[in-house]
């Protein structure tokens, strides 16, 4: 006897035994013994509690953590299906298999719908070991899947937190750096005004370098601040890229005129994104296509084609091109391939483009060879998340 029920132990020695703790819900001791025997015969080293009512069941469940519940459908003072409510109430995931004298197909299907793992008829107990093995396999898979999902959710949370921390850090650091830097700039400028020509030649030169350095640092900090601010997706809407392009070309009008650039574009679609940020991407890419020109006047072409639920854009130019080994580097903050005296800039534009595009679920990359023009490509979603085909409600 164990708890409120009967304890049945294995008697025969069987090779390759698998230990199994079962909880049998059965009013007929002979049937319970037959169940246990069927399992022994098939190589299980069974320890079984036999109970027949809710209180016995709950006690055995708590005391012995069974791996499987085998319940008779009809009991004099309880119902086999009611074991499910107790298992759930106890917060457990234990397969419950009905073992019944007779169970019509309709009832059996209904029981499985309600949560029974399977059913076996008492005159077909030979099937029971395989049914149990399958139930245990499924449970292991379920547990593993839950664990993987839990780990993944934790990692995603962790990543989001560390991203937010980093962003906050970049923002605070660059914001707080501005104040002391303003002092340095102001006082070096004061030094220059008061003492230019009064000290020696070197002093004038050094003060000049200090002012230049401080001004450059101011620009870098402002770029960093701009970088840490971009990419928030709060203002997503359907953005007409033809209209955005018109505005961008107006903004770049002076550079276009100055260099004799020809910028053309095909019919552009609407995308789901932040309008200001889409404009920023186009402006950075077309601006670069003009800036990094070769000997010929720039020829820039902007095109779009549908790629599944996204639009793929391309901005191609006939400029100086990029050697393939730098194709990834150029998207990193402050990475540039040229001295500022050659081509002005701070190396933040492409990093901003990447942040914007990736926040919107897209990708950005370049296809190019040194000396033979570049094509920057990026994708943006064509529709909002709730409209996407296959989106979960
Ligand atoms: P910046 O333009 O301020 O240098 P970006 O982040 O926009 O910064 O670009 C990073 C680097 O990538 C540039 O310095 C340049 O070397 C390279 N690059 C970007 N666009 C082009 C282009 N269209 N053709 C050739 N090189 C480019």
What does this structure look like?
- By secondary structure, the chain is α/β, with parallel strands linked by helices.
- The chain has ten helices and 13 strands.
- It has helices at residues 29-41, 54-64, 83-89, 105-114, 128-195, 201-229, 241-251, 253-259, 275-291, 349-359; strands at residues 6-9, 18-25, 44-51, 68-71, 96-100, 118-121, 236-240, 262-265, 270-274, 299-307, 310-316, 364-368, 374-381.
- A six-stranded mixed beta sheet has the order 1-3-2-4-5-6, sandwiched between helices.
- Strand 10 (299-307) and strand 11 form a beta hairpin.
- Helix 5 (128-195) runs antiparallel to helix 6, helix 7 (241-251) packs across helix 9 (275-291) and helix 9 runs antiparallel to helix 10.
- Bound molecules: adenosine-5'-diphosphate.
Give me some keywords for this one.
393 residues; alpha/beta; 6-stranded mixed beta sheet; 13 strands; elongated; disordered C terminus; binds adenosine-5'-diphosphate
């Amino acid at each position: 006897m164990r708890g409120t029920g009967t304890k049945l132990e294995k008697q025969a020695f069987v090779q390759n035994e698998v230990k199994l703790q079962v909880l049998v819900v059965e009013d007929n001791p002979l049937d319970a013994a037959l169940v246990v025997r069927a399992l022994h015969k098939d190589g299980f080293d069974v320890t079984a509690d036999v109970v027949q009512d809710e209180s016995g069941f709950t006690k055995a469940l708590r005391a012995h953590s069974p791996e499987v519940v085998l319940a008779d459908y009809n009991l004099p003072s309880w119902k086999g299906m009611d074991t499910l409510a107790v298992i759930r109430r106890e917060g457990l995931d234990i397969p419950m298999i009905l073992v019944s004298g007779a169970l019509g197909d309709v009832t059996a299907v209904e029981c499985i719908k309600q949560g029974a793992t399977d059913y076996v008829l008492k005159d077909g107990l030979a099937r029971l070991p395989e049914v149990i093995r399958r139930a245990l396999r499924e449970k292991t898979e379920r547990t593993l899947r839950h664990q993987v999902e839990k780990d993944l959710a934790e990692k995603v949370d962790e990543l989001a937190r560390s991203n937010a921390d980093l962003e906050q850090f970049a923002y605070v650091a660059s914001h707080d750096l501005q104040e002391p830097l303003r002092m340095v700039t102001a006082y070096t400028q004061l030094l220059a005004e008061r003492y230019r020509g009064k000290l020696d030649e070197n002093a004038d030169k050094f003060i000049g370098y200090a002012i230049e350095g401080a001004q450059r640092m101011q620009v870098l900090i402002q770029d960093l601040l701009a970088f840490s601010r971009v990419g928030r997706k709060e203002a997503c809407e359907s953005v007409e890229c033809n209209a955005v392009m018109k505005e961008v070309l107006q903004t770049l009008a002076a550079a276009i005129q100055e260099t004799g650039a020809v910028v053309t574009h095909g019919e552009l679609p609407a995308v789901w994104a932040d309008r200001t940020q889409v404009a920023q991407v186009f402006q950075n890419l077309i601006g670069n296509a003009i800036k990094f020109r070769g000997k010929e006047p720039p020829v820039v072409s902007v095109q779009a084609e549908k790629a599944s639920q996204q639009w793929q854009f391309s901005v191609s130019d006939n400029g100086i091109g990029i050697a393939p080994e730098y194709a990834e580097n150029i998207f990193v903050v402050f990475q540039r391939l040229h001295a500022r005296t050659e081509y002005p800039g701070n190396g933040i534009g492409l990093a901003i483009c990447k942040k914007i595009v990736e926040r919107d679920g897209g990708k950005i990359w370049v296809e190019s060879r040194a000396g033979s023009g570049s094509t920057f490509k990026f994708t943006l979603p064509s529709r909002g998340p709730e409209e996407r085909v296959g989106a979960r409600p």
